[in-house]
Amino acid sequence: MKTAACTLLQLLTFLALVVGCDGSSNSSSISESTAIVYRGNGGDPGSLDPALAEDVHAFNILTDLYEGLVAESATGEIVKGVAESWTISDDGLIYTFTLRGDARWSNGDPVTSLDFVNAFRRVANPGTASVYGFLLEPILHFADVQNGSLPADQLGVAAVNERILEIRLVEPSPQVLAVLAMPIAFPTHESTVAKHAFADPDTFVGNGAYSLIAYNIGGPTRLRRNPMYWDAGSVAVEEIVYLPIVDPGTELNMYRAGELDITNSIPTEHIGLLRENRPDEVRIAPSLALYYLAFDLTEPPLDNSALRQALTMAVNREQLVSLIGRGERPAFGIVPHGVPGHVGSEFAWRAFSVDERLRRARALYRDAGYSKNSPLAIKYTYDAGDIHEKVALAVSGMWHDILGVEVTLEKREWQYFLQTRDNRAEWQVMRFAWFGDYNHASTFTNIFRSGDPQNLSAYANPEYDRLLAAASSETDLASRAAHMTRAESLLLADYPIAPLYFFVSKHLVRPGIEGFENNALDRHPSKYLFLEQKP
User: Which CATH number is 1-63+194-281+509-535's, of 3.40.190.10, 3.40.30.10, 3.40.640.10, 3.40.50.2300?
Assistant: First the structure.
């Protein structure tokens, strides 16, 4: 409680400085100080060490403080980062990067290929215990180094010279460039690692568009434009201040008072009114995240495909997202819209009318051996939370009213819920969600491969695995996309899960701030922000 009180006091003290000593609100922070943008961050970063960071609160800040070999544009495309160019071998196994000659750390040291080698080896080191290290598994020998079978110098990353870096892969991996844009693949400066000074403004050294100048747990994280950044001339905003505000309602109040320029979210109950009154400030866009129900395929009754299809078709997704009221989009596939190069697949019955869907669902339910006189009885497990409660009640109600299913709802606290999901004997239907780690369809399709630790349903289809493997080894983009589409179609036809909706990102952006572009990953590096010049 003492820690919480101190944290709250720090934040309130900071806010008092923002609104002024007389208590009057600063109605437009950017109009009075065109060099600073205040951003809501949704919470404190768990770690500012790129090798240990695992939450979006950290990723937002780290993307400003560091830059990888490649980066993401304002709209989410892969662009040049520290590397000014790269080549890929014909077999897709060797990536050779040429680093910029003007890439510098914030202390003026050159960024070299050895900085990347050391960073990758550190992630692979089992002693680092990097939670997101699995994203680098395509690199040759990464798994063997991480489990201690090989020394770190056997990792498939080599500094040919100061500006040439070579990365060797186990097999072709179409997502490798997207992964290299993430914090897990950022370089680190030797002195920062030695002192573990990732969150110490006095000794921090980064290579991104901004440098760390203030960090307080529970309080603001302040960044300042890094003059050593290779593209510093294009960075328009002098300072960025991240505020760890968890409650969307508090964010909205601060935004209205001029104390916040970009919010992390928008309270559900205010979205409609804000859309009416501030249409140009509300930014709602498809997000790379899926909410779904997993079926336990390992035992009766849900080992029956016809029954799983009946349950999936009986859910009115349009009605469900309307009930939730946050702008989510109905999901009839597993890969959200907006993934470059992916031609999504959807349930064939998506084009049916609601009445036709329900008619088909009842017929399949009967084919599976059930009726209102002989109903299916199943358990639906979910974790505590207002939205999960709403979804559980809505879906169970639809199943009961349309099919006659008798549903037992089982709510568990988050940690207990996570433990439960690994024991299929404890559940039959379980709600879950998956947020894409990178902007590629494989971040969704891969979690349903046979034996994948995230494969809650224990779905196992050799043809599905073969299609994904074929896509991974395919160097022709059109052929790769075709394999991925067929794999998604096959998964949907087998009904191991019932996709319900795709998430959307929700932000308020102050008038006058430009460069905040919608993208599927909902990532918005501050280096792209600029302030509209007033006449």
Answer: 3.40.190.10
